[in-house]
Amino acid sequence: MYQIIVCGSLVPDPLQTLEPITGPAGPALRNEMMLPASLDPWARHALYEAANLATIHPGSKVWLVSLGPKAKLQQVMMTIAQKVPFELIALDGPTGGFTDAAETAAALADAISAIPGLDLSKVLLFGGWESASRGAGATMQIVGERLSITEQFQGVDSLTIGDDGSLRIMERVEGGQHQVSVCNAPPAVIGWATGNLPEPSNNPRVGMSNMRGIMAALQTIKPAPVGTGDITFTSVALPTQTRTTRIIKDIPPAQIAADIVAWIKGG
Question: Most buried residue among 12, 212, 213, 230 by CB atoms closer than 10 A?
Fold first, then answer.
């Protein structure tokens, strides 16, 4: 039996055009509250893996700890709630990519520590190896350290639990290879890459069951004043685009190939 805690942030819909601006409170996205949101794709993988693990090991439970604006959380949970069973722990705070990883991790760790009946000897802390908003690559590590969980694995593609309760973990390393590690027992931090599971289909019965707890969590949501810490942004802007076009007629393919090679070498 495991207590599986998934940390997942909200991100703007990837099909939207994102324009960074400098506002009164620091860097932000233009019309950020108007942008449709979704659960971070890496966190979704972690959530699906957690739900699958809980199914294999009866008696296990999954919590989703998510920090974001209350209105956005309600919007996203209406969709994600139909995928897999979980209990939501919600924190009301900024969801942009400019927040400090240490402050975000502190808020998440405090929320996890407050879970009633938490037993660290049974905890598997899941999250995204990366993030589509807070891509610092450090948030999950800091959460684990604040909870005194020192067994940490990042870039995980596979987690298998042996008959003796040991964890066999495959982490991505250089050259498209995997490093296989064995952890004797929980607790452990697992930063997921893509995992191996497809996205579950919508299940209205699961959605109805989840929404009862989600609405209660949103009604009692606690503020998380996460900011930029000691970070100072001098400016925020979209990357500049450079395009050099030549229009030439009747040039042989060999010359086109030679020109491309010369351009690449010159770059």
Answer: 12
Helix H or strand E segment including 5: strand 3-7
Residue 245 lies in a domain: no
Question: Is residue 260 situated within a structural domain?
Answer: no
Domain that holds residue 219: 3-223
| For range 123-143, the mean pLDDT | 80
Under 8 Å CB-to-CB from 153, ≥6 apart: which residues? 169, 171, 181, 183, 188, 189, 190, 191
Rounded Cα distance, 24 and 22, in Å: 7
Using a 10 angstrom Cβ sphere, with 0-12 exposed, 13-18 middle and 19 or more buried, the burial of residue 110 is: middle
- Alpha helix (H) residue ranges in the chain: 41-56, 70-80, 101-113, 139-146, 204-219, 253-266
Q: Is residue 235 part of a domain?
A: no
- Does residue 267 lie within any of the structural domains? no
pLDDT score at 220 = 87
DSSP 224: -
CATH of the domain at 90: 3.40.50.620
Question: ∠ CA(163), CA(123), CA(184), 5° rounding?
Answer: 40
Instruction: Supply the pTM of this predicted model.
Output: 0.80
The region that residue 37 occupies, defined by phi over 0 for left and psi between -120 and 50 for alpha, beta otherwise, is: beta
Say whether pLDDT at 38 is over 70: yes
pLDDT (0 to 100) of residue 95 = 72
Q: How many domains does the chain have?
A: 1
Residue 97: pLDDT over 70: no
Under 8 Å between Cβ of 91 and 222 = yes
Among candidate residues 28, 38, 59, 37, the one with its CA nearest the CA of residue 122: 59
59: Cβ–Cβ under 8 A, 6 or more apart, which residues? 1
